[in-house]
Amino acid sequence: MQREDMVLCELLYQLADDNFILAYRGSEWLGLAPHIEEDVAFSSINQDMMGHAVMYYQLLEELGAGDVDALSHCREPESFRNAILLERKNGLGHYLENPNYDWAYTVVRHYLFSVLKQIRLESLYHSSYEPLKQAAEKISLEHYYHSMHWETWFTQLMSSTKEARHRMENAINYCWQEFDGVISLGRYGKEICDHQLIVEEEKLRNEWLKRVCTTFGEMQFSPKTSPGMESGNGRNGEHTEDLTEALEVLSEVYGGDKQAVSW
Amino acid sequence: MVLTPFDQLTADEKYDHFMERIEKGEKIEAEDWMPDEYRKALIRLISMHGISEIMGALPEKEWVPKAPTLHRKLAIMAKVQDEMGHGQLLLRVVEDLIQPLGKTRDHIMEDLFTKRLKFHNVFHMPAPSWGDAAIIAWLVDGAAILSQTMMLNTSYGPYGRALKRICQEESFHAKHGESLTLALASGTEKQKAMLQEALHRWWESLLTFFGPKSKQETGHTNVDIGIKYKLRTKTNEQLRQEFLTKYVPKIQLLGLSIPDEQLRFDEDTQEWRYTEPDWQKFKRIVAGDGPKSDERLALRRNSYENSQWVRDALRHFKEQASEHVG
């Protein structure tokens, strides 16, 4: 593979894996959301996001990286390029046994991610790689509604009961410690930008901070530090046990019969 | 002729007027006068249907994160989402019916948690393999389509309209189920075995899906009231016969065996003969004593309690907003 293609693939893996793993985490919420209407809405968002992952995996398939199902189900954890924050469990417990999931964490994580995703998409409209540009245009049609959804949840829970505010601030503080890992473009970040595939990390960070802090300001909240990357950089293949477990679950059936050609 | 205003009619006259409307095939709407027996029958029928859709999401939900390919993951997510959506649609219909009784959705949930409100027998059963996901989508949804289609012309307008949309979506589910089943049936030995085992597990539940033939089996049935008020048009046994006619040949065509040696079509009576399922077991399951009843109820209850703070916060936010406007 040419160096240029390798760099392009790095970015595509980041985009695909972020959407894939967060949609997977969302799918674990199915049937457990705070009310039935949200269950339906959230599931729709998860399907869209997994659909976005499929589009990015297809671009990888076209570049010869392998079949979309193998890319999403058969890679080792260290070859995943998603940010660590997005692979973390939804809370305590397992999706089948005593899931003690935290809705505040889910709202904050999705809200913060949706702002960055929007900024990334805006930058991808100008990507030098035409298929990526086209994918970004399609994705943003759906992402517009996701952003609105999470911003609504975010602002309502931030400006309601004391308990909700307390839970939301805890969730922000937790996500804040890891969010630089979502902004990061990884060890090939400079080359990715040199090929004009997407704008520099620094620009993504500044724009994200500007937008997020505007909403925070309206909610009378201000973060005390810069966003961190405490658990490591997923873009470089550093991951937690949470990803390993998630991959085991999501590939249990697919990997359960190596002879199977069709499911 | 001087017409007496409706609210000045005697209770008997109101009832007669109501039954005339039912006989004429008119649709009853939420605001219309209706006898208590009719309202109660609707509440029982539709809340059980609605909550079964929601509890029915749980066995399949187990397979959502595990579905084998991206395509299957997307399809099963969409399917389970539809089931939740049906639950929502139906609970909205029930909310209108229970509103005059001073009740809300919270009461429906309470009734579920205390097992006063029953959900369908099939959703108390385990779904331990991907084969179960296929059988549920193909045959449980197939059975559901038969009983829901039968009620499309129900006398209660709002229920009929909800069912129309539900039936349209269910037919996609049955196609999804057929596709999952076909892939396994034409796959490796391991895949075939997975499907066959699941069919064996589900057969008795499928036979009991439509409920007992008559009062003799379980002590009571609501079929008579349903037919009197034109909520339904067929008996449980008629539906079961339709199901067998539609699916037994398809199952056999796939090379799958059905775990009932007595099963055959009797040419003389033009009816299917089958081994009578254990109706006492069925009764216990529906009462909330099935293999997965407590586990699934606990899952639902815990998630409901864990997110109480969210619903409180939303209510508070709404109140604040309306005070602000006021």
Automatic annotation (TrEMBL), chain A:
GO terms for cellular component: cytosol. Transmembrane segments: none annotated. It comes from the Bacteria. InterPro entries: Aromatic_CoA_ox/epox (IPR052703), Ferritin-like (IPR012347), Ferritin-like_SF (IPR009078), PaaA_PaaC (IPR007814), PaaC (IPR011882). Gene3D superfamilies: 1.20.1260.10. One of its GO terms (biological process) is phenylacetate catabolic process. This is Ring-1,2-phenylacetyl-CoA epoxidase subunit PaaC. It comes from Virgibacillus chiguensis.
Automatic annotation (TrEMBL), chain B:
NCBIfam families: PA_CoA_Oxy1. Signal peptide: none annotated. One of its GO terms (molecular function) is phenylacetyl-CoA 1,2-epoxidase activity. This is Ring-1,2-phenylacetyl-CoA epoxidase subunit PaaA. Pfam families: PaaA_PaaC. It comes from Virgibacillus chiguensis. GO terms for biological process: phenylacetate catabolic process. PANTHER family: 1,2-PHENYLACETYL-COA EPOXIDASE, SUBUNIT A (PTHR30458:SF2), PHENYLACETIC ACID DEGRADATION PROTEIN PAA (PTHR30458). GO terms for cellular component: cytosol. It comes from the Bacteria.
